[in-house]
Amino acid sequence: MRTISNILKVLALLIGLTTLGGCVNEDEYPDTPQGNFEALWKLIDEHYCFFDYKQHAYGLDWQQAYNKYNVRAKGNITDYQLFEVLTDMLSELRDGHVNLYTAFDNGRYWKWHEDYPSNFSDTLQRRYLGTDYRIASALKYRILDDNIGYVTCQSFNTAIGEGNLDEVIKYLIFCNGLIIDIRGNGGGNLTNAEKLAARFCHEKTLVGYNQHKTGKGHNDFSEMEPQYMEPSANLRWQKNVVVLTNREVYSAANDFVKCMKCFPNVKIVGDHTGGGSGLPFTSSLPNGWTVRFSACPTYDAQRQQIEFGIAPDYEVNLTSDDFHQGKDTIIEFARKLLVE
Fold first, then answer.
1. Which end of the chain has less neighbouring CB within 10 Å, N or C?
2. In which element (H, E) is residue 35 found?
3. What is the dihedral of CA 18, 19, 23, 26, to 10 degrees?
């Protein structure tokens, strides 16, 4: 888990971001369509954390975005029209952590999973879980008929207690291996994700790096700060593990995969994750609308970007033939991998 030092660094980072975010206020920009457009563009320009990476990845040009959408924000347009302009501009960032919140709608970018096969079926998952599965907070779990433990976690929003994790491990302890299915998990509380990952960590392990913005320039960042995971002081799983992923694995769930890939007895099976590696921050526009954006980048243990997701160790897709036979291709592959 995070050390006290890392926690203090995060607190200092958040205080700094609050100070930066306070530069955008109604005193600087009027509450007009053009004023709100200028405020949003400048806020992102000074504090968003992936400009350089996305310029290289797909040619993002934020100044060009200004020129493109500025003309649409001029004149006496309605709030609904302004919302469309601002949301379209933010979509240029291709970031699921970027949102615009209003009383009438939430601007969002969901192509990070909508443009790909889901590689998941809740109908099939119900077949594997059956009706007598156990529930421990956000975890559903049971023992499959080949003595493989199966645990599903579809969100990290719900708190997972240490007692919950102890009970799950004790129940599955005699299984030959463990499947952790996080397909469809869009994230939540990072603490919950790290708490679960720590049950598979057996020595202090470097799992990634963090940075934070130090100025308003696109490349003004601190040095990379290492992130370590400490083994849980409670029961830990000692056998092989397979984590199942798809494109809807995002944010804290993406971070969970980042950590799990660092442990020698863990394999990742399924589809590429959706990504979402930026620590989100929120601010307000002159009209009161709230904008959320990625402010601090995180990296994997090899210092590589994971904003656009993490590749599995074994890429496996759900097939229509298996689906019609009531089989989940990805689960079946994981089961075979664990008994080899």
1. C
2. helix 33-47
3. 60
Whether the Cβ atoms of residue 254 and residue 306 lie closer than 8 Å to each other: yes
Q: How do 205-210 and 225-229 pair as beta strands?
A: antiparallel
Q: Is 295 helix (H, G, I), strand (E, B) or coil?
A: strand
Residue 187 clears pLDDT 80, i.e. is over it? yes
Tokens at 90, concatenated: 């933010």
**pTM of the full structure:** 0.91
Q: Which residues contact 335 (CB under 8 A, 6 or more apart)?
A: 144, 146, 148, 179
pLDDT of residue 165: 98
Look at the chain and count its residues.
340
Sheet arrangement for strand 290-296: 106-107, 99-101, 290-296, 279-284
In angstroms, rounded to a whole number, what is the distance separating the alpha carbons of residues 318 and 310? 18
What is the rounded CA–CA span in Å between residue 209 and residue 160? 25
Give the residue carrying structure tokens 């079946």: 332
- The 3-state DSSP class for residue 324 equals helix
Of 158, 168, 231, the closest CA to residue 199 belongs to 231
- Are residues 14 and 282 in contact, defined by beta-carbon separation less than 8 angstroms? no
Q: Which residue has the higher pLDDT, 328 or 25?
A: 328
CA distances from 72 to 41, 69, 105, 292 (A): 13, 5, 19, 22
Distance CA 217, CA 176 (A): 52
Q: pLDDT tier at 1 (50, 70, 90 boundaries)? A: very low
CB distance 319 to 338 below 8 Å:
no
Determine how β-strand 134-136 pairs with β-strand 139-143. antiparallel
Question: Do β-strands 266-270 and 314-315 pair in parallel, antiparallel, or remain unpaired?
Answer: parallel
